[in-house]
Write a structure and sequence with these properties.
Radius of gyration: 18 Å
Bound molecules: zinc ion
Order of helices and strands: HEHHHHHHHEHEHE
């Protein structure tokens, strides 16, 4: 192994990995593929797609359809990812088990569901970090499922954490004013109030690191901000 690390360092590395996957979700899938607020250069998309092959297994058309539905019918019948419509366990808990089972199956070689990118990722981590590499890999996947389902599909629409800037028709909430770990998705109520705004931070005390990454990519001509060309919502 290359790096001899302790368990706490392993957790930190998993969180760094998770942050990279959150950037991918927020600035590519969410703000570009789903809402068409920004367009990336073909090379940037290739890098995003490679990371996605390791970290995500969603069908992008289902993801886009489900998400646009979520905006249109938010927390009302027709919204397929609302804890108020489908029940909190069906949104926040069971999908984590389903996705974990799918992940395990995808790591079995020579089946039609095998993901060689994911196997490569786990082996790379074992090579880099020894036994902790296994934990780092699985913890990263757990963070993806936990934040995606439990936090953003669930908690971000329940009245237990965070705050609301806007009295939207749905029950969306900003989880935190600083969109750091999940690349800006923490500012969920702001996004529901103004889905065509590429910047999720709306108040002086809020910060959207995903927007900062997009501005950096734009500086290097790797991204072009469209600002609401897609009026599908
Ligand atoms: Zn929402
Ligand atoms: Zn959205």
């Amino acid at each position: 192994m290359f790096f001899d690390i302790g368990w706490s360092e392993a957790v930190i590395i998993s969180l760094v990995y998770f942050h990279i996957t959150a950037i991918l979700f927020s600035i590519y899938y969410h703000r570009s593929v789903i809402h068409n607020l920004v367009t990336y250069s073909p090379k940037t998309i290739k890098i995003f797609e490679f990371i996605a092959s390791i970290t995500h297994e969603q069908n992008i058309f289902l993801l886009r359809g489900g998400h646009l539905n979520h905006h249109q019918y938010s927390d009302r019948p027709g919204d397929v990812v609302s804890p108020h419509v489908s029940g909190w366990k069906n949104i926040m808990v069971y999908p984590i088990f389903r996705k974990s089972a799918k992940l395990i199956i995808s790591l079995i070689p020579f089946t039609k569901n095998t993901s060689y990118e994911k196997i490569f990722f786990v082996i790379m981590n074992i090579f880099l970090f020894g036994a902790q590499g296994v934990m780092i890999s699985f913890l990263m996947y757990f963070f993806i499922y936990f934040f995606g389902n439990f936090v953003f599909d669930g908690l971000a629409h329940l009245p237990y954490v965070g705050y609301r800037n806007y009295n939207t028709d749905d029950s969306s909430r900003n989880i935190l004013p600083f969109g750091l770990l999940a690349a800006g998705e923490e500012l969920h109520n702001n996004h529901h109030a103004d889905p065509m705004n590429i910047k999720y931070s709306h108040k002086w005390f809020e910060f959207d690191i995903g927007y900062m990454y997009i501005k950096i990519l734009e500086k290097f001509n790797l991204a072009k901000i469209n600002y609401g060309k897609d009026q599908s919502i």
